[in-house]
Amino acid sequence: xxxxxxxxxxxxxxxxxxxxxxxxxxxxxxxxxxxxxxxxxxxxxxxxxxxxxxxxxxxxxxxxxxxxxxxxxxxxxxxxxxxxxxxxxxxxxxxxxxxxxxxxxxxxxxxxxxxxxxxxxxxxxxxxxxxxxxxxxxxxxxxxxxxxxxxxxxxxxxxxxxxxxxxxxxxxxxxxxxxxxxxxxxxxxxxxxxxxxxxxxxxxxxxxxxxxxxxxxxxxxxxxxxxxxxxxxxxxxxxxxxxxxxxxxxxxxxxxxxxxxxxxxxxxxxxxxxxxxxxxxxxxxxxxxxxxxxxxxxxxxxxxxxxxxxxxxxxxxxxxxxxxx
Length: 325
Known about the structure:
This protein is α/β, with parallel strands linked by helices.
């Protein structure tokens, strides 16, 4: 996907450094940043080469823009400057016509939780998660929780070591020592959706109990206002049935011909034997096509699927589940 070219000239050096650092950490896949320390530097280039411009309030009265430039320019003032960066960038995307205005939550709002799991195609869970989360993110504020060991999601960011991850979030909510800022520091933005940085050590997923997962989901919905939460399941987490019980829908991926279906049959038999009908009733099976040619990585697979049969199937199913409102 071609990156959006963004020019930034805020005027406040300290704020600009923090703002740009945050963009580099969370939006590097989406934006190509061009930084200007002074307005003179910005005016010395052809601003039409940029898709969007972010200016500091100090420049609002001294610069003259044509109508086209005004449309793609976001002014940071006292009203929006100290908002969360995600909200600022959401406003920028709306201005550029890349994103619809967020649906406003109303009293009685009910979050949606969706799960993804496969006993026969575990390597396809992340590309499917990205397709599902990306489609939901076009309509709702959506976040992905990755509970699959070595899923490959960590390849999205290069500086994961500097960020809090899923293990830190679980520890915070379990001890009750979380703050909104700490929650946000574990969140990264990608295209139309957000995700929690994956665990750095897969054994930490053993701490993702049903109680811990429920607390994380509730905090993401209440404190960070996520309307849809997607969970990518893995075999390491304990009490998987309890976490699946938190989902409104759980997609079970299978290949054409149902190769290896015996594993799914045994799983369902176990759930029935243990009286977990609530889990069985949440399952929606989704056929995944075979991937032809060399493996170009899960991003390539997700891009192929989004506007193909998989994406169409996802849209149909989530409409049936009323996940899009």
